[in-house]
Amino acid sequence: MKDKNRKGFFGLFQNVKRTSESLEENETPHLEPVKASESDNSGEDTTVTNDILSPDPVSDDEPDMKENAAPTLIWEPSDDPLILRVNEDLLEVERRQFAMKMKALSNIYKKNEVTTSESTDQPEPKAAQPHILISTDRMAAWIYVFSPLNGGSDIKEENLRSFLAQEHVKTGILEDTLKSIANEHIYDQVLLIAKGILARNGIDGSIKDHFDRVIQLAFEEDENGSVDYKNLNNIQAVKEGEVICEITPAIPGENGTTIEGQVYPCEIKGTPVAIPAGRNMQLTEDGTLIIAQKTGHVTFSNGKFNIDPLLKINGNIDNSTGNLDYDGDIFISGDVRNGFSVKATGAIDIRGSVEGAEIVARGPITIASGMSGNGRGTLTSESFIKCRYLEHCTVKAEGNVYAESIINSKVQSGEDIIVTTGIGVIIGGSLLAACNINANIIGSKVRRLITELIIANVPRNVEESSRLTRELEQLHHNLSEIRKNIIYLETVQRPDKQQLLDSLKQASDYLNIREQEITNRLTEIASTDSEQVGLIKCRQLLPVVRVRIGSSSLLIQEECSSSVLYKNSEGEITIGTN
Length: 578
Fold this sequence. Notes:
FapA_b_solenoid; alpha/beta; 7 helices; FapA_N; 37 strands; FapA; 4 domains; Flagellar Assembly Protein A N-terminal region domain-containing protein
């Protein structure tokens, strides 16, 4: 009878074990009555009926079994948005299902033992029995230990560790829980025994550009709505030390680990951004900024920003390029069309010709062909200007002016005007140099065409003298009118006009002071010019030529050869032989 009852229990235990193993398939436990494999001779029925298998109702002291119980937190809440949370709601469902199944199995286990003990004299001791549920995502594991029966042995720490190893639980074992189960004999409860390490997503690197990678033409409109197609703003100028890009470095992702020791991958790896630093760029030590190492213009090609001090235009300056205003040097392989402007803080090198355009540079201006200004073209340089021809244009240079021909142009040089290569001819117009004028041919056989040559120590004195002379003429006119009004008001002696009279007298005093200042400055300029020692040289001088050296002047109406014009010790202009 005893052996038969044992067989009946072991059959039941095997059914319990199979039911526990089926939990991973999320099946609802359904246990059939288990019968002993043999009956005793007395015909006693050892069938385990359904009422034994039915779990007891959930009580208030078993919160894990209540449907509305609060979820059990596995991982502490975190404010870190990069932490890749697992589906803890699903884990909670799995935990509750496991708890219900373990409760059912516990009832079967205990009630079967009661039945067995009633039919035997000495019930067999049963050691504490662990069961485990590993979550579907392998990130959590719960344990349920059946309490020992009939004086059976408690579970020990080494038993638990061996059991977990057998179930391939390697990582994230909760040591405090494991030791509490063994030391405090915690049975018949669902406890979290292991939890994986959560992954942490990375952040891909990013770049904030301060300059356009693809330049979009921006046409300007005037107040009347007319579009200016010459100012395209298509050159991205940059100064040394200016920020080209701001870089946000990538934050690498961190993979998690399942309780079985496998990798739980993050979703975003945190890919570093490609650094678009090209020529004349510098990446800061912290890798967050790309800085311009030189002043120039920014372009983007082949995935990189580049800075070129020299702005190269492979073609003409026209509607396709618009006007240029550049902090650096400019090279133009073609022509500069009528009505456009080119400005640079450095040098300007034009391999074609220039029409009625405006060219301004702090450095030298070099034009391979020349300028046909059509009466509106201008060249202005703080250095020298060199070109083949200058026709119907205005030229100002603080350095020398070099040309093969100058025709009907207004040219001003802070040093020499040199027209000795090629034909080397100066015809018409007005030329002003601080030092010397040197040409092969000066003047024209067309006598009605006058060529004016001026040597002035400081070319800007000529402009200042003209401006001051005009101002002085206007000042004399204003003084004359004010004096007339003062005389009239003093004659009529009207009290209501006394304030006006006082104002006119104050204005008269101011204009008298200004008149003296202008007169003194004009005298100073004349004194400077009187010391001028510059020369005018030519192989052939054709009338009519008007010459002024300092304060002295001469009108030449006869042809001369190999001539040198200079001011002698008596202050007169003399024509000598070269």
